[in-house]
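Sequence design from tokenized structure. All designs in this work follow the same two-part layout: the structure record, then the generated sequence. An example of the structure record is given first.
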């Protein structure tokens, strides 16, 4: 089964989720649109892009106002069939970094991902009008998109809906080598037997008066 968050699939699907003739004005526009595309691929249904309006049905295309607060801030509000909760995803610019926050509104299930914007985007690519140059160039390479999706799954998705079921989706496992026990199969060296020092018969005899120092 192919990866549902495969970079090529996401990049191909992204233009279908934004208004026609859209221009991605900044790297943050690109990241926000890409993350929304990932949420859409995982069957999260968009219901709003702000706190003022909420649609009763899923929005198949982002409204024209989706990036009106960019590049500083973006908000996406979702529902999902595997949960009764409402999920909010925000993307914020913080200097040279992009901070991604998510929460299930009716609970305390909050999560966060902080990335260096330049590690995942090419600033010179923006502003970018869709359907002109290949969009993947705005994210440096497919490998960079793969890295971002791995972090996004681990830090955001798995916290919002643990064990999410979707064909082509697997949760990213956490790994750590800190304080891990050694797995070496080499036998430990056994200390060689050291015989006790030899003691002369004279040393074992009682000390006499003449043997004592004056």
């Amino acid at each position: 089964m192919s990866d549902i968050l495969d970079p090529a699939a996401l990049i191909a699907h992204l233009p279908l989720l934004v208004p026609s003739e859209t221009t991605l004005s900044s790297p943050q526009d690109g990241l926000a649109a890409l993350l929304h595309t990932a949420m859409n691929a995982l069957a999260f249904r968009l219901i709003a892009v702000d706190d003022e309006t909420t649609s009763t049905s899923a929005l198949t295309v982002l409204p024209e106002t989706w990036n009106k607060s960019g590049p500083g801030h973006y908000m996406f509000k979702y529902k999902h069939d595997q949960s009764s909760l409402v999920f909010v995803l925000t993307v914020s610019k913080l200097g040279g970094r992009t901070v991604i926050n998510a929460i299930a509104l009716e609970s305390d299930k909050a999560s966060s991902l902080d990335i260096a914007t330049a590690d995942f985007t090419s600033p010179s690519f923006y502003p970018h009008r869709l359907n002109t140059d290949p969009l993947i160039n705005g994210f440096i390479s497919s490998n960079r998109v793969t890295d971002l999706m791995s972090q996004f799954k681990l830090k955001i998705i798995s916290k919002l809906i643990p064990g999410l079921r979707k064909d082509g989706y697997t949760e990213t496992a956490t790994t750590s080598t800190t304080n891990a026990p050694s797995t070496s199969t080499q036998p430990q060296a056994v200390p060689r037997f050291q015989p006790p020092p030899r003691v002369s018969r004279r040393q074992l005899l009682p000390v006499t008066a003449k043997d004592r120092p004056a």
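The chain has four helices and seven strands. We note this feature because it recurs in several other targets discussed in the main text.
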